[in-house]
């Protein structure tokens, strides 16, 4: 009895070993039985896996978190520092891109006008304690800057250099109430004076009694004797509101500057003007409105 | 051994396999992993008779071959576990009743789990598989032994109770 039991066990062992080897052989010979069965099992298991993922995901890395607790804390601190640095770098990069764009545009304006310029960055803005609208730029006498030079931005007039040190200069902005610039209405010979009013709007007083101001008129700097303090042809502003009436002697208008003085970071100081007057060539041209052409489809003519 | 017990035990092992695949496998144990399924199978095998050892060894290995993420030939685990079952069967008489000897049972299960993994690696090498460096494999086997030794006492009472439920009335006597 015992031996028959032992024989039966041996037979069973041989049978099972042969079955295992047979399955292995089938798989190694490329029979797709295994992959089909495994795919079927995967279909059964995957809903359970999804369920457990939702329920037990907080516990997945429990042991590694416990083991790496002190390292995790250190790593989190390091990563936070890196994030702060990257954020600051990103802000700096965006600022640099903006500055580069402004520099390109101001050099482009200077090139079109034929001005010789020295580019500069705004490093400070005037304090309210002095009640002066000023900027400080990072170029001075070492770069050839002197008093009463015109300062321009990518879109037009900014101000005039008022004081100079070896490495910096103070620019009086056109928004300052004491600032005045002689202007000409583009496309005409009418001349006037634009004055700063301490804010973002400016006052135009037309000196020509026969001249006419219209809303939308562009104003360019008329230029000064010896091109100091103003070189001719620099865009100054655009008329937004006509203020004068029939009884007034001079014609007045509200003007909006072409330059946003709050946002400039790069300017150019005109060290030498063009040989000729650029006239109205530096005024930004309005974008052409797209013209839509509609071709009517021919309607079928009625049969006679 | 009745066919009903074979079916019930197989279903139970498949359920444990499901738990292993969906839950235990997600836990990142230090150094190496712990296999609840292998430990459970070893517990079941340690309490079986000769025939049961071979049959459940084969079926247990076959269930492991069903793993969707397995990259080994189908049937390799069946071969390994049949061999492990044979080792149990050969030494059955020297292994006394382990129901009342938890430390002995835990030690046996841990050793058997490690031997099964080692056998799997060896058979894999014979079949031309590349399972990584020797040192790394030994580290995984050692870690598996440690984790099995630590965790087996926690769930073994439950396994024993379930196994008793799966026995037929005649087999319980």
Description:
With 304 residues, chain A is of the alpha+beta class. Chain A has helices at 2-28, 33-56, 62-67, 69-113, and strands at residues 116-125, 134-137, 150-152, 157-164, 169-173, 180-185, 191-196, 201-206, 218-221, 235-242, 251-257, 266-272. In chain A, the strands form two sheets. Chain A has a six-stranded antiparallel β-barrel with strand order 1-2-5-4-3-12. A six-stranded antiparallel beta barrel of chain A has the order 6-7-8-11-10-9. In chain A, β3 and β4 (157-164) form a beta hairpin. By secondary structure, chain B is mainly α. Chain B contains seven helices and no strands. Chain B has helices at residues 3-22, 36-46, 50-65, 76-90, 102-126, 134-166, 169-172. The model of chain B has no long low-confidence stretch (mean pLDDT 84). The chains are: A alpha+beta (304), B mainly alpha (173). The A-B interface holds A 5, 8-9, 12-13, 16-17, 19-24, 26-28, 33-34, 37-39, 41-42, 45, 48-49, 51-53, 56, 59-64, 67 and B 18, 21-23, 26-30, 50-51, 54-55, 57-58, 61, 65-68, 70, 73-76, 78-79, 82-83, 86, 89, 127.
Overall shape of chain B: globular
Strand content of chain A: 15-25%
The biggest beta sheet of chain B reads: none
Counted beta strands of chain A: 12
The topology string of helices and strands of chain A comes to HHHHEEEEEEEEEEEE
End-to-end Cα distance of chain A, whole Å, is 115 Å
Pattern of helices and strands of chain B: HHHHHHH
- Quick one: overall form of chain A? elongated
Main interface by residue count? A-B, 37 and 32 residues
Radius of gyration over C-alpha positions of chain B, nearest whole angstrom:
15 Å
- Mean pLDDT figure of chain A: 81
DSSP helix fraction of chain A:
25-40%
């Amino acid at each position: 009895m015992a031996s028959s039991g032992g024989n039966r066990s041996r037979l069973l062992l041989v049978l099972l070993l042969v079955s295992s080897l047979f399955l292995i052989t089938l798989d190694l010979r490329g029979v797709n039985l295994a992959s089909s069965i495994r795919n079927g099992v995967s279909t059964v298991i995957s809903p359970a896996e999804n369920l457990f993922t939702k329920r037990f995901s907080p516990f997945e890395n429990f042991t590694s978190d416990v083991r790496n607790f002190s390292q995790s804390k250190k790593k989190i601190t390091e990563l936070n520092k890196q994030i702060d640095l990257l954020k600051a770098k990103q802000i700096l990069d965006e600022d640099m891109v903006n500055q580069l764009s402004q520099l390109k545009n101001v050099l482009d304006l200077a090139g079109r006008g034929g001005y010789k310029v020295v580019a500069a960055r705004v490093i400070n803005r005037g304090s309210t304690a002095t009640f002066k609208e000023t900027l400080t730029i990072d170029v001075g006498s070492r770069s050839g800057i002197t008093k009463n030079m015109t300062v321009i931005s990518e879109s037009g007039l900014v101000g005039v250099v008022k004081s100079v040190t070896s490495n910096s200069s103070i620019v009086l902005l056109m928004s300052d109430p004491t600032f005045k610039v002689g202007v000409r209405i583009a496309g005409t010979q009418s001349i006037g004076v634009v004055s700063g009013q301490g804010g973002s709007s400016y006052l135009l007083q037309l000196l020509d009694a026969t001249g006419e101001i219209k809303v939308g008129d562009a104003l360019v700097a008329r230029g000064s004797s010896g091109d100091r303090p103003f070189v001719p042809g620099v865009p100054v502003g655009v008329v937004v509101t006509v203020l004068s009436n029939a009884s007034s002697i001079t014609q007045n208008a509200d003007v909006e500057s072409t330059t946003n003085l709050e946002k400039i970071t790069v300017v150019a100081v005109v060290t030498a003007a063009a040989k000729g007057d650029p006239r109205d060539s530096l005024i930004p041209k309005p974008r052409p409105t797209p013209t839509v052409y509609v071709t009517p489809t021919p309607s079928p003519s009625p049969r006679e | 051994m009745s066919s009903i017990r074979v079916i019930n035990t197989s279903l139970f092992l498949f359920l444990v396999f499901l738990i292993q695949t969906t839950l235990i496998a997600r836990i990142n144990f230090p150094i190496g992993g712990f296999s609840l399924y292998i430990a459970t199978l070893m517990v079941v095998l340690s309490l079986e008779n000769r025939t049961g050892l071979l049959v459940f060894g084969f079926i247990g290995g076959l269930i492991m071959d069903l793993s969707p993420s397995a990259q080994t030939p189908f049937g390799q685990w069946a071969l390994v576990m049949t061999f492990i079952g044979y080792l149990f069967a050969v030494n059955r008489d020297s292994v006394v009743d382990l129901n009342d000897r938890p430390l002995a049972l835990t030690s046996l299960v841990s050793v058997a789990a490690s031997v099964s993994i080692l056998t799997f690696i060896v058979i894999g090498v014979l079949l031309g598989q590349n399972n990584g460096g020797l040192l790394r494999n030994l580290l995984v086997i050692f870690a598996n032994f440690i984790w099995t030794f630590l965790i087996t006492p926690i769930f073994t009472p439950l396994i024993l109770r379930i196994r008793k439920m799966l026995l037929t009335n005649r087999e319980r006597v």
